[in-house]
Amino acid sequence: MFKNYLKTAWRNLMKNKGFSIVNILGLGIGLTSCVLLLLYANYHFGWNKQFDDIENIYVTESNQFAENNVFTYQVSPGPLAGAIKEEIPGVKRAVRSVSYFAGGLMRYKDNIFRGNGLHADSAFFEMFRFAFLYGNAKTALSKPDNIVITESFAQKLFGKDNPMGKIVTRNDSMPLVVSAVVADPYANSDFQFEYVMPWHVLENEQPWIKNSGWGSNFTDTYVQLNTEKDFKRADGLVRKMIMAHQDGYKAEAFLFPLSKNHLYREFENGKPTGSGAISQVRLFIGLAIAILLIACINFMNLSTARSQKRAREVGILKAIGSERGSLILRFLAESYLVTFLALLLSLLLLSLSLPYFNTLLKINIASPFSDSRFWAGIIIIGIFTGLVAGSYPAFYLSSFKPVKVLKGIVSNGRSAVTVRKATVVLQFSTAMFLMVATFCIYKQVNYIRNKPLGYDKNNLVEIKMEGELGKHKDVLLNNLYRQNIITAATGTSMSITQGGNNGWGFNWPGKRENEKVLIDFLSAGYDFQKTFGTAFIQGRDFSRGYPSDTTGTNVLISETAMQVMKLKSPVGTVLTDGDGTKYTVVGVFKDITKGSLYYKVNPMIVFYSTSPQYLSLRLNPANNITAALEKMRTELKQLNPAFPPDIAFVADNVAKKYENEQVLGAIANIFGGLAIFLSCLGLLGLSAFAAEQRTKEIGVRKVLGARVWGLTALLSKEFLLLVLISFLVATPVSWWAMNNWLNKFDYHTSLSFWVFILAGLSVLFISIITVGVQGVRAASANPVKALRSE
């Protein structure tokens, strides 16, 4: 019997090819969009889940207490891991991991590559189980000169040769022995590296780390417990450790599940809020469901639009004895056949669009076609789609009375009309919401892009001090000045776009005893103001005319620091750090945004740099940038031949800070456009249904002299009213949602009324075209044929 239903369904599809193509195309696009967005959500839900025993692994977070506020950072002091392992029962392992210092140059014979790596404790690979191609987790980092490399990095350095035991040279100075090769880390993992080196290497390269105390936060610390039951006691003890080992330092470490670290890492006053990246994932899941429902609604509207043509079929079938149940199954079979064909189309579209989707979102979702869970999900989505899309037409069409339909009387109940209108309002409300979101996100990104940074990012480049460059810094700068390539240069302790170096221990005149202020630190050389274009409010920059600057006891402070310290005459004020060292303020500059572009800047103190880690260079705008960079690379190769030149534009690094919002805007734009397209298909179906119902009326009006445009307006008026209702529904919802989103940022644009008007007018314009085309087509029909058919 079901086979006969499928045959009948296939014949109906072939008989109405145009209708079938529109239905299959609409459902296919809806299913593709839904699956793409659900794959994105699954990608994030699977973050770090590849590690065994993930439910018992925790990362230590640190609460730093300031006046009336608590700041939470994923950072901890070096001694914490050892103390946790020794002092807390129920702990299986505790390991440290640092990526900041691990990047560098790796050489094997003539193969030289820059790589990203980690420094980690010896138990790192015992806690985090990576697949080993060579070696094993127990001995991988057991010796101080070991290095573990990934499979792809091994192929870069050694080709097809066995890498075990081979010696690679780090930064042209440190020989390391390959002790293991592991599979490349999953893209959806907190750990992204090409090699891992023992903690001993870090202590050799950064001697201060060996003696760093409990007040120096620089490492990630991970804790693996024996069972989940050990968590409560372990967390309670960890919370007391920092203040127990460091008198006068008010901070609190605590354990946070690594399985939740990616999606739920948002804290307020030192406590998790239950939010974070999960809010964006939920948004995409909601978008996936909305687009799929819009596609299903289209099928419903397009099916009911053909009710006049299907009514006689239903009447004949009922007249010869068909039960309503069998008719419902007949129409559901047609729905599932369309869904099956749409699924085939969506799988094709998915395979074509997934690489572009990955590129757009800068992620790496693997092809899911070999995953049985993917196919199980596709089957579930197919069953759900076929049922939702086909149930209303099936029940609606099968309800026709045979006596009436055979006489040509097809009654549309008030409930049926209400359902169709409600679905159109739902569709266009969703489309308008996405359009408002798109405009709002782009407005926020433009606001942040044009927000003053406190320095001029244009024509500003940075070079990391590597190899012999530190010895030849002055020679390099003299050569660049002589060739008129740069107009200013200064050395800094870190990139001007990088945050994270801060502390609490400074005192100043008038500071209250219990007052805690988090202050950002930066070191810079001469020409700080000239290089960065930073404006000074009071005082002066570091200057060669003041030899005392080189002693390191003179400092610059930011405008916010001056305000927080409540200094009326800041120049000459003496500041004291936690060790009792005194510093004299010689200048006050306008605030500089180093970290996030979205949140308030911390007060900043700039020290004089004696051993910079970066060179910041202001390019001469009169020169051709490409030619200037080529000359700069030539100088770098001559002075530091072991290290390939690596010149970074500050403007590019700043742009990376709002990539996430740009991606969110692109997603809203693309899928909002698809939602509008699918909504217009539904509107097309509803307008076709209305025109079909009013065939006789249109014919009579034309005979009586009605014009095409008048009839078009008559047919379109009702649907444009629905679009207006959609605008009224979408406006308060989108205002509430986008206002909440913007309020997450300290620096944000305002919600302008033109955003809602523009979204409404855009959807209205598209709707007028959609309905107008159908209206013109119906109004242009020959009235003689219309009346004769009636």
Walk me through what this model shows:
- With about 800 residues, the chain is of the alpha+beta class.
- About 50% of the residues lie in helices and about 15% in strands.
- It has 24 helices and 27 strands.
- Helix 11 (about 325-360) packs across helix 12.
- The mean pLDDT is about 85.
Secondary-structure map with pairings?
Elements: H1 2-15, H2 17-45, E1 57-66, E2 69-73, E3 76-77, H3 80-87, E4 91-98, E5 104-108, E6 111-115, E7 117-120, H4 124-127, E8 132-134, E9 146-150, H5 151-158, E10 167-170, E11 174-182, E12 195-198, H6 199-205, E13 217-225, H7 231-245, E14 251-257, H8 258-261, E15 267-268, E16 271-272, H9 278-305, H10 307-319, H11 324-361, H12 372-397, H13 402-406, H14 414-450, E17 460-464, H15 473-482, E18 486-492, E19 502-503, E20 519-524, H16 528-532, E21 536-539, E22 554-558, H17 559-564, E23 574-576, E24 582-589, E25 604-608, E26 614-619, H18 625-639, E27 647-649, H19 650-655, H20 659-693, H21 695-703, H22 708-742, H23 753-779, H24 783-789
Parallel strand pairs: 7-12, 9-11, 20-25, 22-24
Antiparallel strand pairs: 1-2, 1-13, 1-14, 3-13, 4-7, 4-13, 5-6, 5-10, 8-11, 9-12, 10-11, 15-16, 17-26, 17-27, 18-26, 19-20, 21-24, 22-25, 23-24
